[in-house]
Amino acid sequence: MSWYRTAAGRRLAPLVAVLALLLVAGCSAGRSTSSSSAPASAAKALAFTGTTLTDQPFNGANLMGTPVVLWFWAPWCTVCRAEAPDVAAVAAEYAGRVTFVGVPGLGQVSAMRAFVAETGTSGFQQVSDVDGSLWQRFGVVSQPSFVFVDGSGRAHRIVGSLGASDLQQQTQALLSASAGT
Predict the structure, then answer these.
(1) Average pLDDT of the residues of the chain
(2) How far is CA 5 from the centre of its chain?
(3) How many CB atoms lie within 10 A of CB 13?
(4) How far apart are CA 106 and CA 17, in angstroms?
């Protein structure tokens, strides 16, 4: 009898399908953009809470009205690991003007902490998303992805890796858009 014909197999089939999709998507090397706040509404894009990798409470609402870059990554993603130094450098360059927040998911917290330590990305907060709720909230389905939230709460999502130059351009555009709000 095939595993999917058992009661347990029928219950696990949707999970297996989702995991297979994630494995096929893997680390997204390509890039696509989406200007929206979906599924989070513009007014409430940052209305979420979580826990940082340093076990501190995090309240995204405290960032409302300011430009924010959310970087969605996974600890096992080689593309995320390769772009991490650029993300850290741009976050440091824009410190005090744009808030960067890492949103690691699809892994264990211990692996997320190791990734941060190994990649030098401890210069900005990292909010663990073990259950995937933040990824879902922002419509993120693969890593790496970025969500740029301007001062009025409008979100712009980019799926895929951004090198230092592209990330600087996107961050500068975010800063300029926020100045007009």
Answers:
(1) 83
(2) 37
(3) 12
(4) 15
